Amino acid sequence: MKDLFGSPGQVSGLLLRIGQCLFASASIGVMASASGFSTTTAFWYTHTHTHTHTHTHSLSLSLCIFSVAIIPDVTSVLSLAAACSATGVVILLSRDTNFCRVEKQLACSTFKISVALAFVSWFLLAISSFVMFWLLASV
Amino acid sequence: MKDLFGSPGQVSGLLLRIGQCLFASASIGVMASASGFSTTTAFWYTHTHTHTHTHTHSLSLSLCIFSVAIIPDVTSVLSLAAACSATGVVILLSRDTNFCRVEKQLACSTFKISVALAFVSWFLLAISSFVMFWLLASV
Fold first, then answer.
1. Is A4 inside any structural domain?
2. Which of A82, A137, B3, B105 is most buried by a 10 A CB count?
């Protein structure tokens, strides 16, 4: 196996996984603190997917099980899908319409922070997925 | 270069590119027929990105220029982002709230069809991107 940045067994790989886990956990926590997030499918999906992903994927991958690692890495596509769908809704509520200004009970700032954290988590996951895929193709 | 399904120079590769172009064009046409789509950022972004992508990417790639092909293939991530952000908004309007039932002037069915077509286009593009990336990694 080539020694690429972020590959399993490398310190950089472990740091990437820890970073994914931390940012995903922060995104989950911030989203959960916003009341009524579960009534919007995009927010609920982002929260649920990130939650599932964090607990089943990032920590187990830090144990460097290569054969297991490549399968859940495919879910980085779902992470991006979740973050983007939530972003579409946040932009609709805060910029395209006046809902965030009119409906004061909407926790728009909280949603924005949670989505931003989900994007950072996805970016770190994308690096790991890229490296894993590269390793798999070059074997 | 390995002879993989969908690789440049293969009939399957050309068919994939033609499929991407057709579905993306259909998505653009359907979205453009929905009045007021440009006031929603997610719909506007989906339309603009798909439009740009179709004209600059899919057709030029069918000419089998490998060195040029790998760069725009990265934009498949942006295509997914566009489709997902629009999906988030469509689900918000049609399922999470009653906007589609109350606001009859909203062309919800048209938005749904356009987003579905964008997803099909992205799926075909993802196959091409996957193959191109695999070829690049295994060179």
1. no
2. A82
What amino acid occupies position A26?
Answer: A
Task: Note whether A41 contacts B91, CB cutoff 8 Å.
Answer: yes
Segment A32-69, tens digit of pLDDT: 888 778 878 888 888 887 777 766 665 566 565 555 55
- The answer to whether residue A104 sits within a structural domain is yes
Residue A50 domain-assigned (yes or no): yes
Q: Considering its fold, how many domains does chain A have in total?
A: 1
B78 half-sphere exposure, CB direction, 13 A CA radius: 15
Segments in A59-107 forming alpha helices (H): 59-61, 66-73, 76-91, 99-102
Q: Contact at 8 Å (CB) between A84 and A92?
A: no
Q: Which residue has the higher pLDDT, B69 or A134?
A: A134
- Is there a contact between B91 and A138 if contact means CB atoms under 8 Å apart? no
> Which residues of chain B does A133 touch, with a Cβ-Cβ cutoff of 8 Å?
133, 137
Cα torsion angle, A122, A52, A22, A19, sign: negative
User: Model-level pTM?
Assistant: 0.82
Q: What is the pLDDT of residues A115-138, one digit of tens each?
A: 999 999 999 988 888 888 888 887
Q: Is residue A5 part of a domain?
A: no
